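FIELD: query
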Amino acid sequence: MCRNRLDYLCSAIESIISQRPSEFIVSDNSTDDNVARFLIKSYPEIVYVRQSGCLTFYEHLGAALKLGTAPWIFPMHDDDYLLPSFSENIVGYLSPKYSAIAVNGYIAYEKGVSRKSIMGVVGRCGASIIDDPKVLYNRYIDYFQNIAPFGGYIYRRVTAPTVSCDQHNLGIHGDVSLVCQMAEKGTLAWIWAPSLMVRWHDASESSRLNVADYKKLLSYGYNRNYIEKRQRIVKLFRLRRYLSLFRRRNSIVVIMKRRPRHLISYLMLLLQHLIVRKLAIEEHSF
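FIELD: result
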């Protein structure tokens, strides 16, 4: 999936070609013709599909999931790339009993590669099997083990066309609705071994997310009975929201002037965070 990032595209393509895929399609949502010209010159054998250039991210994802005929679809960003172990790690899970497969990956920041992964765990072997969307959703909002659903999901073709991203109700977290729907329709396999490199930009940092998007994500969970307001995981998620507020300039002044009780709530949550931190890390129900 491409959009105006030609400088990263070559490494992404080479990493995919090295895995010898049965089908390789480049879906281009760029606002210029640079990707098209590059592919014609350097990779004429790759199937190229030009989108309108004005699609939102989730609209582009929906269009990409409808392309091709292979039984499994892996929509990958043009700035990410696969590790040599990718095929070896996933081949044992390409089974009809799974509706989707989550692939772990290292996070590459602009300053270098982090030891962190998109699933929050490095060093585990095998896979976790998920057959309940509540488990998946709770994993996503977990303060300590927070992950980003999109970036490492392989979708089974027969299931993918029946689901969609709820961008209207979830905003930037629209992909959460997609993977939760996949969990409702079948079983998901989470492969722990890192198999790709996910590039993390400043705009991807959770600390920069809008508070309104946090509220949308919680409302989505409430409306589907994935969570309850008194759950510890919800309180800690709210702590994450307040931390994002405090990272912003003059945010503490705004909170004190408009809603001083929020500051008290923040301090209470911070205390709770310190008390339960060790317990939360030791708990590994996923």
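FIELD: remark
The CA atoms of residues 138 and 226 lie 7 Å apart.
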